Amino acid sequence: MKETYIFTYGTLKRGFSNSYFLDDAIFVSSAITCEKYQMYPCIGNGYPFLIKSEKNHQIKGEVFKTNSKIILNRLDDLEAYPDLYLKEFIKVELENKQIVKALVYFKNEETNLNAIDLSNPIFEWVDDFCY
């Protein structure tokens, strides 16, 4: 399997509650999305949703790389793909200004819309329970 970059923006980031899902992946860099999106916490602030249809902010996160199909399958399970999240590749800018295409999970905007806290838009997930 070829190497895959993964852009994380919530609980998969280093030091956060689900970071262990990426224990066997290699941290590459902090990063920011090249395009603008919107992020909201779920009701209860347990994890964020990245919304593709809203173009308000570049989103800060981290990039990892892996060539493990096991890791990618585990991420699909964690993110309840394709019901809760959908995935695609987007361009992100690393700290060294390099642009890479990275896999990211966007909120599936056709399902579970009542799980989104639309009153609290954010552009960076800074704690496991962001407020």
Comma- or semicolon-separated keywords:
single chain; 131 residues; mainly beta; Hypothetical upf0131 protein ytfp; five-stranded antiparallel β-sheet; two-stranded antiparallel ribbon; globular; Gamma-glutamylcyclotransferase family protein
Q: Could you give a quick summary of the protein structure above?
A:
Helix content is 8%, strand content 36%. It has 131 residues and is mostly beta strands. It has a single domain, classed as Gamma-glutamyl cyclotransferase-like (Hypothetical upf0131 protein ytfp, Roll).
What does this protein structure show overall?
This protein has 131 residues and is mainly beta. It has a single domain (4-115), classed as Roll (Hypothetical upf0131 protein ytfp), CATH 3.10.490. The protein has 1 helix and 7 strands; from the N terminus they run βββββαββ. The chain has one helix spanning 69-78; strands spanning 4-8, 26-33, 38-41, 48-51, 60-66, 85-94, 99-107. The longest helix is centred in the middle third of the chain and has 10 residues, at 69-78. The protein is globular and about 35 Å long. The relative contact order is 0.29. It comes from Arcobacter acticola. GO terms for molecular function: gamma-glutamylaminecyclotransferase activity; transferase activity. Keywords: Transferase. The active site is at residue 79.
